[in-house]
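Our consortium's second objective concerns turning raw sequence data into structural hypotheses that experimental partners can test. To show how far this objective has progressed, the report includes one record in full. It was chosen at random from the queue rather than selected for favorable results. The single chain below, 163 residues long, was entered without modification.
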Amino acid sequence: MEFVLSWVKNGLVFGLFASVILMLSPGKTYRAHIAMATGLLFIMVMLHPLMELLQIDTASYAEYIQDYLMLEPEVGRYERENLRLYEESVAIEVKMALKAQGYEVSEVGVTADASGRTLCVRIRFGAGSELPGDPERELAGLLGEGARITYEVAAGQSRPEDQ
């Protein structure tokens, strides 16, 4: 019985403290944020006695909350997303550079490593006439050395080396 009374007393004291804080808040814009923070603290105050009763250590509980709310991102998730965005931006650059040179490009795929070095560029040219030049030479300055460039020519077109 003493446990329940202590629990209710802690809740009431924190509720009074939270209402005083909300009354002292400077305006409506801050009030919503302060109310959310005090509400989360109220939940923690009310759960703490239950954690003691069930003998849950605070470290494992905090870890559970972090995992539940995904406060710590999955390892490598942002790096993979950044790499994907980098590859997409290089593909757009390649496509624009080739279109500026008169090529009809239907698709560009780029593979890069974690350091941002472009490893491979795959280009698919659309249906049209002959290629006006050598796409590999056109892209050498844009991609730098070491990037492998492969391209596929639609049926009815000829590669520069076929001429």
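The partners drew two points from this record. Residues 2-69 form one domain. Residues 134 and 161 are 9 Å apart (CA to CA). Both points have been shared with the crystallography group to help prioritize constructs.
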